[in-house]
Amino acid sequence: MFVSLLAIGVTGLAYVHPTFGQSTPKIKPPIPATYQLAAVDFVNPTTGWFAATFDSGRFVVLQTKDAGQTWKRQLSGQSNQRVVYLHFFDAARGVFAVMGGQPMAFRTTDGGRTWSSRPMMSGAYVLSASFVDPDQGWLLIRSAPPTGASSRLFRTRDGGATWTSLGSPVAPADQAYRVQFTDSKVGWLDSLSARPYAYKTVDSGATWTQVPLPAPRTGWSKTGQFFVASQATQGVGVLATVANFAPTSGRSGIGAKVVSYPPLTVRTFDGGVPVFYWYATFVDAIPGANLAAVSSEHKSGPTSQVQAPNQVQLGSLDGGATWTVIEPPNGAGAVGYSDALNWWWIGSGLWSTSSDAGTTWTPYRNAGVLPPLPGSLQVLDSRHAWFAAMAGTEAVLETTQDGGIHWSEIGLPIVKDAA
Asked: What are the residues whose beta carbons fall under 8 Å from the beta carbon of 50, sequence distance 6 or more?
């Protein structure tokens, strides 16, 4: 649903594009645009939306009804924030929201032809949003001193007209970064704590339970911080990614401290000077990851982006009651799922599938596609899927209508930064 894309116009991104016997000829993408693709969401093989943000702080939302052949501009405005939330529940009803310090929510009930808007939680900094329908939604906000809570959860039942505080969803020593609800009752958090457990609610966020996670063969460390990203797949399916960071030891450079997410930002010391690293996690490769936030991992600068250390993936098919260690294919890619059991993985021109919720995978097959951007793969059903990719400096979409045998490349339109 939410995908991570590089800034369009950033140079130097290389890609592998293997050939495939009967692959659909590639459409030449348009000239580079000047925006970042912040989110993409399709509700069926032909109808979808994408949101783009500009360096000026503005945003735009466009829709296609013909599988990306043409796009219509539906919504634009000021955001001052690249982090957005876009989710359509069907072809008519959807929510678009701007995160950050000036949060704003937009709703449509006619497929985006018209939108209603209202500010969300004036004066708060919104970390994350999750809606299960146009009326019922949750916001995770960052609290300022002297509240003493690092984050607080709010709920609306009237599309954001009013919000009710549910307090902090985590223990006082823990941090909450992102919230995801699968229905009006069940929700999960991305969190940081001293032990490896996930957070789950079954009463609409009123109370949260720490869900213990089984240790891998090597066991869990007894020290440091545990970052746990808990994401629902389909139905009662859940995927938890756990990354452990050893505690810092003075200024020796040994150890690390998580300071924010997303992306997963960690501080270490190098010769007494703090160094920040942006880490990639497996949760960034599944639908629901925030596209705009993860894109910053790929930009050049004083930070480095590497795979998070000591990373473990756990899957559950019963809402977190039992868990299994899963082993996804090696290499960067994107993961999507048509149901709780059937998953797809697409990497640099390669394709693999799992029929047991990621426990085992088929051998690599040549898909003849560009490397997908993390978090962009949306599998609609057993035959139809979409994902985003970069063709040099330009963003494109890849789509299949026959279960991944053939793929078509769709160039995204030029979008101007205009009111």
From this structure: 37, 39, 40, 41, 61, 62, 71, 412
